[in-house]
Amino acid sequence: MATARYRTSHLRTLEAEAIYVMREVAAQFERPVLLFSGGKDSIVMVHLARKAFFPGPIPFPLLHVDTGHNFPETIAFRDRLVEALGVRLEVASVEDAIAKGRVVEETGPEASRNGLQIVPLLDALQEHRYDAAFGGGRRDEEKARAKERFFSHRDRFGQWDPKNQRPELWSLYNGHKNVGETFRVFPLSNWTEMDVWQYIALDDIDIPHLYFAHDREVFDRRGTLLATTDFVELQPGETAERRTVRFRTIGDATCTGAVESTAATLPEIIQEVAAARQTERGGRHDDKRSEAAMEDRKKQGYF
Amino acid sequence: MTSHDSDGPAGGDAPPADGYLDMDLLRFTTAGSVDDGKSTLIGRLLYDSKSIFEDQLEAIEQASHARGQDDGGVPNLALLTDGLRAEREQGITIDVAYRYFATPRRKFIIADTPGHVQYTRNMVTGASTADLAVILVDAARGVQTQSRRHAFIASLLGIPHVVVAVNKMDLVDYDERVFRAIVDEFSGFAAKLDLRDVDSIPVSALKGDNVVDRSAEMPWYQGSTLLHHLENVSVAGDRNLRDFRFPVQTVIRPDQSFRGFAGTVASGTVRPGEEVLALPAGTRSAVETVTTLDGDLDEARAGEAVVLTLADEIDVSRGDMLVRAGNLPTVATDVEAMLCWMAEEPLQADRHYLLRHTTREVKAFVDEVVYRVDVDTLHRDDADTLALNDIGRVRVTTAAPLFFDPYQANHETGAFILIDPYSNATVAAGMIRGEALSPDAVGREAARLERTAETRMVSPNVVWEGHNVSREEREAEQGHGAAVVWLTGLSGSGKTTIAREVERRLFASGVRTMLLDGDALRHGLNGDLGFSPDDRRENVRRVGETARLFFENGAITFCTFVSPYRADRDRVRALIPPGRFLEILVDVDLETARERDPKKLYARSDAGEIEGLTGVSAPYERPESPELTLDTTRQSVEEAADAVLAALAEAGITA
């Protein structure tokens, strides 16, 4: 496919930066892995990894930390993608971690498995001795991420210490580490939500239909539109109704909010994102718990 | 207060859905303290370009209110730009924070850095990738020390464009004379720096004048608003498009039919069919294809991430560089550079660091601090070391050659970082000025060129990833570690006698060993060398390389050489991993050595038959901190050997 070249386009600049970072990781680390959530950011990362190592295969596996609360479309999409690319997929299951007693399920109507992903993630990193894990995190997403590095050092416990991060100058990335320490690497650090959407349109990247407007049964929980699924129970006073919605992020179905939208094509989505007055994480129930919620999760080893 | 300028930027409008293909990217840095109104200025840019989302605004409104910081209903915009809780609690920003916004013309990345003196390293970090620097000056206070520091760092890091934003014009009644006086003062200072493109804009971030919207209060100012300037400054010509440099990141080899070299073009351009030279080997080939997932390209340009295939099967690996045959970078192991020190622990001249340059990493010593710059006055001070946030000129020697251009001509091939091999921390940022050519280095270089006239590119490039059986495997199999034990001292001190005794004993207990003796090697490998300083240096260099081969083969390798120059011994040390190089000073009274005189060198020197005998008519530089010192004036050979064996055991090399 001969796509036209936009030499000075900001998207091609961001693309080249991400490819450079991915190649550095492949060269500097022994066992990298790509954290794949099924969301658009991780799909874009897989696309960039194909570009970085073409015509060779992607030289690292994908790791999906599965909360067990997925939209079925996410899993179907994931499995198709993995098969088409011939990459290895590892699944770290929160369900299994609960069964093994490694983590304890939150209870109550607002229980979320988001925080529970940390233990199975760290277990999987340790079990497979992965020394660098690509994440789709972007600095524009949240305050705690604005100072995140491309190469983010984690101690033996997978923890992030904001005071012990290395300065990153030019494009010289320092992946030196001691035994047992790991890195999280964020090739999309400098991308915004808008850049991701524009890039998906530019390169015509396939993404799950959840991102496009569709009819779905949803209910309003404190301002967040949640889909009715097997994993959430309606609380008194909440009523489900069919609306035309789409998702701006795809995560755990129990806390990922939909937005009312009629945007059914990529140009319409880009138009909508351009006019949006809420960040995409505005629909994330879990971030609202406290002003420093994200920083706390990150310190423990969140993505 | 402000009026919309119909010709001004359309920052208030959302970017059109299809206009993004024409947008480009501008990275800029802002430096200044809260007092200068920096956070307010950034907040204003984000706010007026409608880059702040409602939920972000709500969050800072809540936070401002909770802390009683909302002033007449206007939220504290500074809260938008300070991220981590530790910082919010202390009310300071302690690192570089990145902010993003876009207009229909451009996407912007702001590297927002605090301006206090202790944060020079953060300013340098933010400036390293910037196309433009916004230097804030408080109109009411004039050009401060801090503004000068920002200008110096912008110049040092070679930021192509500088905008002086004279802020708080509302506090000086929008007086043109105040603005002009500040611009004149800044220009006077900037004349001493290497700043190519400087613009000045009078603004009020608080009130919004000339940030996004044109001010109605300053009709005397006819220039651009800040955002209009940011949108229109031309950065296309800033990249070096002349000198083709392609540092190889990784080799792509999916099967026998394809072998390509992946990397990002650091500078210049290349097309299929063009001849290229691979450094350090110096082998030539031609580019066959520029391969990408989107199809082969007819050209690869600076900044593009591609895969190059070559017409010939030549040996190229990560850390090598493809260049054009008629346009070579400098290839050298001694460079002069400006260095910004970024670690709490100061620079140490007697230990090695890892130097990362393009995709290459080599061991390096900082041999000398030439001077330290007082960043506030630009004075050059004498200094022995550099501490956190110090900037100075240094000489660096590397264990393998670098292929570089001066930083000012090519940021990509002129920049490096130093990494502490023990803590793994990034401890310094360096900008290469050029090859270090002191008077004696000039002589050395000429001698070296003469010796290697035809094969200059075949310099000591030592990349050891390629061993079929690794040293670690050999060590595990043989049950002891490898090491290089370097015995240095005067002729007649007992170096060889002691080494032979130690080797005998180790061999008897099944340890793999090797002994490299100065005289023995001068009969073969080094038979072409004499005893001039240059030849002694080359002698030691070859021995070091040879020792390393035996070391990689798993042997405890003894080297017995007078090796009078500290720098030469340190170069060998840099070849060997930390903890595996044991420098042993075999100390002796000159009188005792004269009495022993096993090779009759002292006698011949006294008779005038030889010149330049170490200790008599040539200097001996004692090791400053050897792993072990033996005193053979007093110790017996057996005692000395015991001490060496104990040192090997203590270092964990033998059990």
Question: Key features?
Answer:
heterodimer; A: 303 residues; alpha/beta; Rossmann fold; 2 domains; 6-stranded mixed β-sheet; 4-stranded antiparallel β-sheet; 10 strands; globular; disordered N terminus; B: 655 residues; Elongation Factor Tu (Ef-tu), domain 3; 4 domains; 7-stranded antiparallel β-sheet; 17 helices; 27 strands; 26% helix
Could you characterize what this model shows?
The complex is a heterodimer of chains A (303) and B (655). Chain A is an alpha/beta fold and 303 residues long. Chain A has two domains: 10-197 and 292-300, Rossmann fold (3-Layer(aba) Sandwich), CATH 3.40.50.620; 207-286, no CATH class. Helix content of chain A is 30%, strand content 16%. Chain A is built from eight helices and ten strands. In chain A, helix 1 packs across helix 2 (40-53) and helix 6 (193-202) packs antiparallel against helix 7. The longest helix of chain A has 19 residues, at 10-28. The two termini of chain A are 33 Å apart. The model of chain A is unreliable at 1-7 and 287-291 (pLDDT under 50). With 655 residues, chain B is α/β, with parallel strands linked by helices. Chain B folds into four domains: 19-238, P-loop containing nucleotide triphosphate hydrolases (Rossmann fold), CATH 3.40.50; 245-324, Beta Barrel (Elongation Factor Tu (Ef-tu), domain 3), CATH 2.40.30; 331-436, Translation factors (Elongation Factor Tu (Ef-tu), domain 3, Beta Barrel); 471-650, Rossmann fold. Chain B is 26% helix and 27% strand. In chain B, the strands form five sheets. In chain B, strands 7-15-11-12-14-9-8 form a seven-stranded antiparallel β-sheet, with no helix packed on it. In chain B, strands 2-3-1-4-5-6 form a six-stranded mixed β-sheet, sandwiched between helices. Chain B has a six-stranded antiparallel barrel with strand order 16-20-18-17-21-22. Chain B starts with 23 loop residues before the first strand and ends in a 5-residue tail after the last helix. The model of chain B is unreliable at 1-17 and 439-466 (pLDDT under 50). Chains A and B meet through helix 1, helix 2, helix 6 and helix 7 of A and helix 2, strand 2, strand 3, helix 4 and strand 8 of B.
